[in-house]
Amino acid sequence: PQQQQQQQQRGSSSSVHLWTRNTEDEVEEEALIAEQLSRSAAFFGEKGQAAVRGAFVIVVGLGAVGSAAASLLVRAGIRRVRLVDGALYMPNACHALAVAGDAGMPKVEVCRARFRAIMPCCEV
């Protein structure tokens, strides 16, 4: 809306509308992320937290240990994570990350959904 108003104020007669993400939403998301990562930032410092956010991590194996480790990495602020595990969750292997309804689902898909819910800006 703000961009459209600026085009109208300049006298643009174009009927093409450019849809961009609302700047207020981006600022709000950044504030939420900063709040979520405040403890990590206090530990790592500003430069360290920037390095963490810019890191790319590959996690091979999403069992109880691998999925928990990947979850902690996402919660620490790692934005780019590649998950590798070709297995499905079985009813006897639904640990802290998975729930009963996840049985039969690919581990990668279950973890991706959980991590995006925790930190929407992460790329899994």
Automatic annotation (TrEMBL):
GO process annotations (BP): cyclic threonylcarbamoyladenosine biosynthetic process
GO cellular component: mitochondrial outer membrane
Stated name of the protein: THIF-type NAD/FAD binding fold domain-containing protein
Species assigned in the record: Pyrodinium bahamense
Transmembrane segments: 54-74
Signal peptide: none
Disordered: region residues: 1-23
UniProt feature, compositional bias: Polar residues: 10-21
A GO term, aspect molecular function: tRNA threonylcarbamoyladenosine dehydratase
Keyword annotations of the record: Membrane, Transmembrane, Transmembrane helix
Domain THIF-type NAD/FAD binding fold: 38-124
